[in-house]
Amino acid sequence: MGVDGCSKCIKYILFFFNFIFWLAGGVILGVALWLRHDQKTSTLLNLTYEGDAPPNTFYISVYILIVVGAVMMFVGFLGCYGAIQESQCLLGTFFACLVLLFACEVAAGIWGFMHKDSVSKEFIAFYDSVYEQGLTMNLLEDKKRAATQVLKAIHETLDCCGKDSTIENLFTHLGTDVCPERSSVFSQSKNCHTRIRSLFTDKVYLIGFAALAVAVIMIFEMIFSMVLCCSIRNSPVY
Length: 238
Prior knowledge:
Helix content is 77%, strand content 0%. The chain contains 8 helices and no strands. It has helices at 6-37, 39-45, 57-85, 88-114, 118-134, 141-158, 166-175, 192-234. α1 (6-37) runs antiparallel to α3 (57-85). The longest helix is centred in the last third of the chain and has 43 residues, at 192-234. It is rod-shaped, with a radius of gyration of 25 Å. The N and C termini lie close together (6 Å). 28% of the residues are buried.
């Protein structure tokens, strides 16, 4: 049994798309591992203060990406092998896996869009809590030292200082030593709320663009796999 003509062309197009899909899975896996071990995010999300830690929502999303990347590489290999072997069983399994992956991606995309600002908001709330404790005058020395160490780590990692208020940031620069060194009184660091939003928002958009590209590839693969499967079923037996 074998396909010929236009169906044979579809076979190699499907193989090409599956190879791209397999590479995309590798890229997503690599990006997820980079996000997991990125120095800035690792430093910030591993901080603790009096048993409280930053939100782990970001890491949960990264672990999901790692699983998705690994599954995509497996499914891409399955599709490549099924296309070359012209196996209806493998192509049918491949199509079912693609539908399941596509449904999960759509669900994850909807959830991610609805919660796209939650990671930065939760970390800002954590920062504000430590900030208030670190600048409280009548706080116990041990607690104040712990809060100051956490603040210094955040400020040095993000090259920022203070919250949204410019006057409050100026007071923080002048009255404490928790901010990064500056060349003059007027050369203040950016406020940490802006830096935190920028850090996590940029990474969310990176994930979103990657997911969109993969979704487009998956749609073409589902179409070609079904066409090829039908061609194999209808091809003459020699």
